[in-house]
């Protein structure tokens, strides 16, 4: 490895090729590159750009999947805003879930990572235990949690009963189903613990030594060294978290099917219902376009505000 | 660490505080990990209980007698072997396809100079924002028109093309491989494909392994694709199979937990075998991204 990193000395003395040959070489590389990048580009056109444009078109139509789509202009958008309580219900459910889950997952993820970023023995065992659930997902996890949340025989209510708390109807009461979803989803917080831990370990130790010599307390070190240095990672986790959270589907679909009484009727469940149960493909397309717009808008806002709170080392001096 | 010895007075107080903090940290971490482990234990013990032990309150943690028969009953009542076989087919092909598509695109973005490369790379990263729900309906219609519903093609064909995360991760790895190796091979007359296959791919083994592992998890657990595209029970992967089975066996919790255990076990085993690469993978995309 080390021997090969320095270029062979003979190469220095090779005369530069005549200009025309260099051009054809560059052109050949460009053609090769354009061929190779098709491994992404064709997929982008067929499965992202094309479908997005088609979805925008379909969102202006009334279509049941047979015959020709009927153009109805903004009809679908007018309906979903003015005449579809389930649209607003799904917005509410998704927003409440996101507002509970995202701050909690970031706080717990970061907190756990800070705890684990000490010279403690057995850290790798903790890392394994916290990370493991986050690589599991999908139906089996939801089925498993369905029984954890069981009102009469579930382990969670058994645990609460030790403190004299009455059985909570986690999946039977529309007020409890969102907290239940949040708890289930927090089981997967380990991935962000690992990511934050990776970020914490990348902070130069000199910064901490300086803070220590200056007599900074643990808390003020956290606030003035750790948080600013970690802000790019936190920022990235926030963006990805928002994008993923607004699309949640499988967990709710398996656990409750959107119930009870539409209490876990997430936005994606609404799209699924309209498109694949009611076959209102035009209306469902309008819903999906609105979701894309919301996600792009929120991501845009986070990016805009990031200049104020995300610290990139090397951009300016120590601040 | 030597600097610690030269710290100003007051160090004693601080280290006592440090020790207190370490103890408190341990308590939190231990309590937390018990909480994280309980759902697993709960799933496994429930899968080995008979009805009488499931419907007791307070909880009976150790099944007595241990009902291994629950697993035999599960495999007798649901076509679990078919589900498992289908899942393996989807997962193996999904992993291979992901590796091919993403590594080719990543090589183009990392090494080849062509017009529009940086714009395309940016566009690719920006598509992370596009929810899969926004493309789902037209894609479904397209595959329907092609007559591919109830086949694996709608799930596997998109896998052949590069996805943003995998491509990004592989590109970062490719960039860290010294260019001189390929230059030397090119002087010897090797083409782009040979450079890629004989130099870059072998050197990026660990990155490819990481991408493969995450693709494994994705295709093993994929639910939405099968839910939308597959309709015959004989083609269901385990995710859809369990969903179906759970719908029929609402009250048989032992069997449902046994089914969940069977579906989760391969992922857990893989995690323990390859934990190191799982950690590397998310740290690379999450921290350096």
Overview features:
heterodimer; A: 319 residues; mainly alpha; disordered N terminus; B: 289 residues; MetI-like fold; 2 domains; 14 helices; globular
Short structural description:
The complex is a heterodimer of chains A (319) and B (289). With 319 residues, chain A is mainly alpha-helical. Helices cover 67% and strands 1% of the residues of chain A.
Overall pLDDT of chain A, averaged? 87
Residues in helix, % of chain B: over 70%
Averaged pLDDT of chain B: 87
Low-pLDDT sequence parts of chain B: 1-13
Q: Give the overall form of chain B.
A: globular
Radius of gyration of chain B over all CA atoms, rounded: 25 Å
Termini distance of chain A? Answer: 39 Å
**H/E element sequence of chain A:** HHHEEHHHHHHHHHHHH
Counted up, domains of chain A total 2
Structural class of chain B comes to mainly alpha
Q: Give helix and strand order of chain B, one letter per element, not per position.
A: HHHHHHHHHHHHHH
Assembly status: heterodimer
Rg calc of chain A? 26 Å
Strand order of the largest sheet of chain A: 1-2
Briefly note the CATH topology name of the largest domain in chain B. MetI-like fold
Number of strands of chain A: 2
Helix count of chain B, per DSSP? 14
Shape of chain A: flat
User: How much of the sequence of chain B is in beta strands?
Assistant: under 5%
Uncertain ranges of chain A: 1-13
CATH class of the largest domain in chain A, anyone?
A: Mainly Alpha
